[in-house]
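A reminder before we start the practical. When you read a complex entry, don't treat the lines as separate problems. The point of joint prediction is that each chain is placed relative to the others, so the output describes one connected object in space. Small molecules and nucleic acid strands, if listed, are placed in the same frame. In the example below there are three entries. Take a minute to note the order of the lines before looking further.
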Amino acid sequence: MSEFLQLFTQYNIIGAFWVNIQLTLWSALFSLILGVLLLMMRISPISSLRGLAGAYVEFFKNMPLTIIMVFMVLGAYAQLKLTFSDKFVVNFFWLAVTGLSLYTAAFVCESLRSGMNTVPLGQAEAARALGLGFFQSATEVILPQAFRGSVAPLGNTLIALLKNSTVAAAASVATETSSLMSTMIEFHANSIVGIFLIFALGYIILIIPIGLLTTALSNKLAVRR
Amino acid sequence: MDNNQTETSVLFDEPGPRGKRNIRIANWIGGIVVVALAVLILMRLHNPPDGENQLDWQLWLPALDFEAWTDFYLPGLWMTIKAAAVAVVGSMIFGLLFGIGRLLPSNILKGVSSVIVEFCRAVPVLMFMIFFWRFFAFAGVKGASYWAVVLALILYNGSVVAELVRSGVGNLPGGQREASLALGLTRTQSLMKIEVPQALYAMLPAAVTQLVVVLKDTALGSIIMYTDLLQESRRLGSMYFNILQTLVVAGVIYFIVCWMLSELAEWLPSRMQTRTAAPAEAEPMAPIAIMDASNVNQIAVAKELGEDHYGGAPRRYHVRHRGSNATARGWRKDRYMQGYDPNHPDILPDQHHIELPEFPELPHPKSSKTKKDDKGDKDKQ
Amino acid sequence: MTRFNQCMKALKRLAAAVCAAACVVTLAACGTDDEAGKVRIGIKFDQPGLGFKKAGTYVGFDVDVARYVARKLGYSDDQIVFKEAPSKQREAMLQNGDVDMIFASYSITEERQKAVSFAGPYFVAGQDLMVRKDDHDINSVNDLNGKRLCSVTGSTSAQVVKERFASEVQLMEQPGYAECATALFSGIVDAVTTDDIILAGLAANARGRLRLIGKPFTQEYYGVGIKKGNTALARRVDAAIIDMEKDGSWQRAINDNTRGVTYKPNMKYNPPKADLGKTGEKA
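Here is the predicted structure of the whole assembly.
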């Protein structure tokens, strides 16, 4: 037991989780914005935008996140010089956020689209009958209802995002949980199971509230029909 | 896809001549922006501030020649597929075992299965991989990284399959189970002989979609030194310093394989629907860990609202509430709550409460159940 | 009843198919080729210049030494089975008997000697820096303050630089040296650090754009990993290495694998005297 306490003092486990939480929160914010944008493009009357958004979603749905993360460093940073900061630690953090956001936006778009399916056709027809144009009927009638209908899949996406934030290790973010776990296992091979359980427990503690909150919100916000 | 089309077509009116012109202009602008962006990126790659021209044929040739395929990509792809195939088979077995475990009448089995499934869903796959990799290496298992990749994928995807089995059984019409009970089968027999086989067919398309997830996640194996496609392409890149090019090739291969599987998953439902009474759909509801809710039932209700437009008779009861609440018992309860059997004693008090509007705050879970036009409400309970 | 039977049949068929698929794949996964009468040698597959899989065969300095030693031990080239020995799995592979010998830039350390025995050393490497050819700012490890340095995840070489020489260096970790070299090419890092022979092997493939500083600041004794306590084998390997150094094959192997780079192994220590077969157990 004292060995575990020593592990906690020797390594900044909470700090590592905090890095993952920060990655998750920033990526969630940006991917939500990008996801809504993609959805608008996907349902818009302009066919080139529709095609573009469709291609984007299809591309990221079928591409491993690991490759995208490696690309963020070796492609976007090394070749295209996408630079956020002169400090490596900060820079890699934001590169990882960019990669995660681009990847997750495709899934946010899909979640919102499944939320759109909860909106009956009559709503759109009524909006048109009232004389609302595409933009108005989308932003004032369809999207608000779609959001309320897609709380659950969005919660799913958030949980997946939190778990995916460990892949930031592939984008040279060395302070997050999976990297820390590797280091700890390397130096404390005897307590490997204990170390793993610490991190597993950490994720369970983080994910349970998200799951509960999603369920509660989903029931509360669902549009009664 | 079909849904999207109908959605798209009703969101805006058929454009008139001016609308058509505007759309055409917007199309051109959109196209030009995309092309400009692509050209800008290519120019940057062609002539980066420092470093070398990434479009040089000298860099692309070693990434594409015969040797690259025979020595690196194809062996790597084989390793990827080997891990993915074993992981899929394993996760099917794992998922069946624990998915059925969660449906069995025994509370102990149900509890144990639930804890295992929820644990495996909450822990990131990469954490599992690193742990098993080091663990197997210390334990002296041959091919530690291979088994680490396979086992990590089995645990996570198996837990997803377990949820698919559970919701597949929950989505079967009640008659299936009632008929088998009436024929004298026990609850467990009915589950194993009637419900689970049908649930398997119903979940097959979703399982193929899950295969795409497995294939994508094998790429995580490269972090633990498993020589999959991604790792092999990195190696090839370390020979001629064209790692960017080899990664592009690997990315294209991943995309093509995953995309073909996705297409298969979209084609399968129509074939599987003939073999099951449950709805077979390609898009599995990604399950939320711990007490998931899903919006599948909301979608189902929205579809139902559209059904009457074709002049058919309205449904007697709603599409079953799906997701992890789909236990066999909950599914029967729902049926009564939906008013399928108006004479059932569970239903009768409801009508009573509606007739007494002076006590609307009475905390009864089934109040407001009997409004004839209020179909969707019942599914949200 | 026929409905039940059909269901059962379908389920059985499915189960059979699943089992068949599982069997095929597992068999393929654990397919054992005939290894009787062959020597199994662990090498790196991913380090150009030391051990690299190329065109269906293996090339590099470690591979050349391994081939030479195996020949001296009485194995022809087609009796050698090369296996990949990633850094973290080397001790385990020897302990399980997966391989007979390991030639994989395997530094002799006291920690490792608790788990395995070594023969050799057959080379003394030293940690060095690799920079862009036109970059003249960095001429020794002390010039790294405020610069960017790349090393491989889990290796201690970058920490050594940061702690002992340049405390203000920025570190980047990448999974492999190729990624580091790509980063160096494109200018996002200024130097790559690891053992000089590995750097030389990388630079040899870099179309003349990278160079080594040539001032190694540590000594790493590369040994041949063998199963703990196999002194007889260690002695024979030592003898083979001494032969290799004497008859010029050793120098030829160095030259072949670092062609195109101005690289000389640290002459103060190289070629090393292979004598661990006699003293290794005491160390």
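Discuss with your neighbour: The radius of gyration of chain C is 23 Å. What might explain this?
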